[in-house]
Amino acid sequence: MSVRFQVAVGTGLATLALALLAVALRTDHPVRAAEADDANYASPLEVLLSRDGARLYVLCQQSEEVRVLDAATYTVIKTIAVGNVPRGFSLSSDGTRLFVTNSWDDTLSVIDTRTLTVTATWPVGAEPSSVVEDRAGKRLFVANRISNDVAVLDAQTGAEEKRLLAGRGASYLTLSPDGSRIYATHVYPNPPRVRTKLDNRTAPESEITVIDAARAVVVDRLPLHLIAGVFHLAFSSDGGLGAVAEYHPKNLVPLAHLEHGGAFAYTLTIFGADVGKASVEVPLDELERYASQPFGVAIAPDKSRIYVTIGGSECVIVIDVPRLMRFIQSHPRPQSGSFAYDLSASANYVVARIPVGHNPRGLALTRDGRKLFVANRLEDTISVIDTRGNRVVATITLAGPKTITEQRHGEQTFYTARQSFQGQIGCASCHIDSTFDGLTWDLEPDGFGRDIVDNKMLEGVKGTEPYKWNGGNPNIPTECGPRTEKYFWRSEQYDDLTLADLTIYIRNMPTRPNRWKLPGHEMTPAQERGRALFTRDTDKFGKPIIEYNRCSYCHSGPKGTNQKLFDVGTRKPTDNSGLLKSPPLTEIALTAPYLHDGSAHTLEEIWTVYNPDDKHGRTNDLTKDELNDLIEYLRTR
């Protein structure tokens, strides 16, 4: 428990003394030890029980291991090294193999569950995030977050058969109980198809991609309207009830006064034969207490309860299924099929909120449904919940560093929603998995309906200041401190050490491998031609290009920005100024939409739609093929 002091007014030594005393009395601050800066935490992300329930498999993302525990005594049986940044795993249909997706290696580790050794490592698509095997044991299906598809592999050899188009940021796969269908979710909204006249924004749209497991073809796409951020999906054992965890952003209205409705609704979409032909979206939030960042879902074997991990609120929500069904059946269903904005709804079916550790993610129920294991990613623990009493009865501490470094504390701060008014949002609500959300927002500081802004990728943000599209924030402490506290949290301020730790975490985020670069960083012919266009100083007619209108001038330096403001002719009627900071090019291939307000859906549109006067680089003399070459080069940055 921490002791906090709020100093409303006053300056000088008295104020400083109180502030220092507050810091000194805090017991939740990390030990600021330099020797612990490279601490290799386990960071358990997912948990899985063996078919016989004797073993608990724990996927540890930061230590890049699978730890095998005795499910009764919690002792470690074996630790198995896997690839770079593992994100998902699953057992084969017969339980003899464990498949692990290594998201930054673009590989799949195959583990023999009898010998507990890696027997094969297979290449897959770009950033594989989850994997399932079909019931017949013939095919593997792998969701690839960057290539936005599901790869179909031969389950015995790993040879790829085909790719199936999924949603943007395809990440989580679930096999239906009868084995006939595979359901894929995705963490970023699909690219918009139409534009509005005012600011080019449309409501976010997501989907559940349904795959016929026997034929390996997409047979349906279940729409998720107004959803951006879809995570784990679970079925009841009889297949009659499905539930998926998701974010419902309110980004089409000004993000103002969180006390009047918040920036997100956090919801489940319920579907299946028990619900009827149309799916129903139900909120997990309640008045004055929100369910920030839902992630994992499990349904009790007797279909009496749904369990949902709430990463930002650090709890597990328990839903009474019969009461949920009565609510759905007895209340007039909104035309949209969503109860998301009814904050009185969850009181009808949420029966418990069980506190667990920092950033709970994956969860696993025992076969009898009496015990629930929850992976607390940022605490290196597994909470063991007695589902009859809805309480934690044991906490499994994973081997690893005990000191909480500044960077680890900053990461905990990034993911928690404790700082915001009523616990509504955390940094990770908009920056999913410390990246971005693919949305544009109307933020309050610039005026309601003014300066619509595209959310930026955080990887590689160090050394690209000033921040904001208008360059209004000189550094990360300003960006994440006073601005965030006033306009986002509407609540308690960070103390100086917490803000410092958050800054350390953000400045040290690693940048994922660039999939458009060749292994030796040599360039393809198209990329070479694109680089020549990027660095050219004369156009195709032999006329000099003014220095400040060259791509290589504004986007210079190691991260593709000279950190200055320019008017590139993209000012909209909603913008207060046409001066915008030159954005970095780091990971530009991943971060659509583009331009300051997200109005360009693709890189090509930056020049073909939004550069009529050649103010955003000299590009109107380029053919489509030449623009394609330029884009191929930009993707390597």
Helices and strands, with pairings:
Blueprint: H1 13-25, E1 44-49, E2 55-60, E3 65-70, E4 76-81, E5 86-91, E6 97-102, E7 107-112, E8 117-123, E9 128-133, E10 139-144, E11 149-154, E12 160-165, E13 170-175, E14 181-186, E15 205-212, E16 217-225, E17 230-235, E18 242-249, E19 264-271, E20 280-283, E21 294-299, E22 305-310, E23 315-320, H2 321-330, E24 350-355, E25 360-365, E26 371-376, E27 381-386, E28 391-397, H3 406-415, H4 427-430, E29 440-442, E30 452-454, H5 476-480, H6 482-489, H7 496-507, H8 525-535, H9 551-554, E31 565-567, E32 579-581, H10 603-608, H11 624-634
Antiparallel strand pairs: 1-2, 2-3, 3-4, 5-6, 6-7, 7-8, 9-10, 10-11, 11-12, 13-14, 14-15, 15-16, 17-18, 18-19, 19-20, 21-22, 22-23, 23-24, 25-26, 26-27, 27-28, 29-30, 31-32
Helix pairs in contact: 3-7, 8-11
